[in-house]
Specification:
The chain has 18 helices and twelve strands. With about 400 residues, it is α/β, with parallel strands linked by helices. The strands form two sheets. A six-stranded parallel β-sheet has the order 2-1-3-4-5-6, sandwiched between helices. A six-stranded parallel β-sheet has the order 9-8-7-10-11-12, with helices on both faces. Helix 9 packs antiparallel against helix 12 (about 220-245). The two termini are about 15 Å apart.
Length: about 400
Amino acid sequence: MNIVVFQPDWGTAAPYVIESYVKAFRFLGHKVSSVSLKELADQSFVVNKIKSFSPDLSVFYALPLNQTNILEKLDALGIAYVSLFYDDPFIYLQQFGKDKLDLLKKSKWYCIFCSDTDYLQDLRKFGFLRVEYLPLAVDTDLFYPINAFSGCLEKFKCNLAFAGSVDTAPLAMRKNRMKRWQKFAVLNNRINELTDPENIIDAETLRRELNFLKTQMPWDIYAVFCRTVYEEVSSFLRIHLINAVSCGEINVYGNQGWLNLNNEYVVYKGTIDYKNELCCLYNAAAINLNITSPQLRTAVNQRVYDVCACSGFVLTDFRNDLSRLFGDLIVSYKNRNDLNSKIDYFLKHKQERDERAQKARQKVLAEHTYQHRAKVLIDAVSSNVIGLA
């Protein structure tokens, strides 16, 4: 199969996810041609490039928001095209006009792949013809066990670590939002309730609240509402949980927003490189803490797969898809008390920690690499899109 992949230049994870899919497609024997967003700005160039390559399939991370005409071109050329959504798809869709949405809904060439079962159901109800479940995965070229005598392990060795950023001024962001939304008092107050830094609600409660509100407003306003909630609550949630750790020091890696925490047990270690350093951290830390983005309502995020591939131990906040993907191999917490209890227990039980980590690595290698995901994607497109069309 000939596959055109459109390369995103935005986001933290998106470029790496697409790069991993490119390698996986090639590993499976397919020919791949890449198109950058810069190239995409020249529609005639891209169309000529596509015609000369004669692809069977085009792959986007989410959707090309500023160059949507390419979707019409692909449809007219009879080329299957897919979106990979690894966060809230409606945040992207609400930026489309009705005509573009109708094209995507009615197209026999378009298919959505989504990692979150909540959104999967919503997309089908919204009218999309072909929606498939496709979780995240791991790139084993980037994440793998490191020899115990490697020098990089000593640099990152610690009992507890977290990698991720927080807004440098979350309270100011909240204040600015309240000013922007002041004409919409009811919605403004509801956002205040859901993102209150003095009363952080757990992920499952937030999920229930947002699912309830879905029926209370037009879908596009709801998407903007959710995006605003995610932006605020994400930093507050991370700060809340990191500050709650009471079992000793935690090393945090990310932006300088962490310097605003007045907590002697939180040790800010600076930024960390995804490709060259995260693997070392996941190998070296006794416990790798994971705090999932609130917009992933049921899905398991990238860090869980990456830590497991390193034979590292991950302690993650609960998501429904954990058992579906990993059985009982991954240890999860539901609140700050549960978090501290499990940190304390697993720091004292190294053998159980290591056994779980080894079994989780075996599970990831057997079922959750990007080669596995690429095969599922191609099989689904071949039978449900190309075959039917």
